[in-house]
Amino acid sequence: MSGKGQYPSITASDLAEIEIPLPPLEIQQQIVAEIEGYEVEITNYKLKITEKQNQIKSVIDKVWGINENK
Question: Is the pTM of this model over 0.70?
Answer without folding.
Answer: no
